[in-house]
Amino acid sequence: MGSGSESRGAGLTDAEFEEWGTGLLERIETQLFEVLRADSPFITEMARHLPTAGGKRFRPMLLVGAAGLGFDLTGQVDQEAALKAALVVELTHVASLYHDDVMDEAEWRRGAPSANKRWQNSTAILIGDFIFARSSAVGASLGSDYVSFQAHTFARLVAGQIEELVGPAAGADPVDHHLRVVADKTASLIAASARFGAMAAGAAPDQIEALTRFGERLGTVFQLSDDLLDITADATGKAPGVDLREGVPTLAPLLVLKSARPQDADLIEWLSAPVPASDLPQVLALLRAHPAIDQVRADLRSRTADALAELTTLPDGPAKRSLAKLCDVAITRSS
After folding, report:
1. Which DSSP helix (H) or strand (E) runs through 328?
2. Is-contact 62 193, C-beta < 8 A?
3. Is the pLDDT reported for residue 1 higher than 50?
4. Sign of dihedral through CA atoms 283, 286, 287, 288?
5. How far apart are CA 331 and CA 300, in angstroms?
6. pLDDT at 29 over 70
7. Cβ 168 vs Cβ 177: under 8 Å
8. Which domains are assigned to the chain?
9. What is the pLDDT of residues 265-304, one digit of tens each?
10. Among 8-22, 79-93, 146-160, 256-270, whose mean pLDDT is lowest?
């Protein structure tokens, strides 16, 4: 799967770093489909269904960026470890999507029919399990430090999904509950991506912990920004209001529900249940004009600054700049 460590010496230019990163990401993409090959053509087709439909590959991009710090730290990167670890995080992410679609009774994913819609729920669940197994097999070849953190991350993913299904306890703050769900369901795996990249870079323990915190903060920004995009998406080509129609709680509506302003009474009533399609344009218009939107954007800027602060102890260079750029990508999607 890899060629071991790659040494290029310190001081890569941005163009050289981008060329190296693009090449590694292309290898990761190829290996992703190879790992999903099964003895049964039918299982292979199902396992490759979602990856074939596309996706941002945000987690491998983050991992490769963090791994590239090795060129500035020691002059080399454990490229084989970076490749395998990227497969672990992307396979874990893809597997979780198969399971999410079953629980959400989704019909579409990445512009294609969801696996549960194309086949059936039980098949989609089993394919998710198959992909998790392949992810674990790749992770086992990396050593106990990787396996241990993968298991920790997987437990958080499951806990976050359960918490989302159960909802906040009586008397609990729904906003705090939602942020914990976001942290466990999304940020945990993005944190693992940054951590695994730092490990492949040969980073010092304190730098590994800083990059893990960076990934956690970035992951929260990534998800909250995506949720905001569901409300503000008119100019992006993404159909807005999916979460509102399905009654999925996100930060801006939850902030509105805490409002004591008399003029918010009608909007609060709408947001207290799934919004009918016929009411969606009016609800979106009211929500977009509400101060909660600016409140979420301010929160995103603050969280992004906290993430960037975790990079201050890292050496300057193209890898660090690529990580900062991912923050820009995450936050500008909904601005």
Report:
1. helix 318-332
2. yes
3. no
4. positive
5. 7
6. yes
7. yes
8. 5-332 (1.10.600.10)
9. 999 999 999 999 999 999 999 999 999 999 999 999 999 9
10. 8-22
State the DSSP H helix or E strand holding residue 7, giving kind and residue range, or none if neither: strand 5-7
Give the tens place of pLDDT for each residue, 192-239: 999 999 999 999 999 999 999 999 999 999 999 999 998 988 744 456
**What's the pLDDT score for residue 7?**
62
CA dist 87 and 93 (Å) reads 10
> Both tokens of residue 294?
């600016």
What percent of the chain lies above the pLDDT cut of 90? 72
- What is the sign, positive or negative, of the torsion defined by CA atoms of 138, 141, 146, 149? positive
* Token representation of residue 263: 């003029």
Closest by CA to 200, choosing from 83, 89, 62, 300, is 83
Q: Left if phi > 0, otherwise alpha if psi is -120 to 50, otherwise beta: which for 56?
A: alpha
> How far lies 95's CA from each of 5, 15, 83, 165, 314, in Å?
29, 34, 18, 18, 33
Which token pair is 123?
A: 């098949």
DSSP string, 24-93: HHHHHHHHHHHHT--SSHHHHHHHTHHHHH----HHHHHHHHHHTHHHHHTSEEEHHHHHHHHHHHHHHH
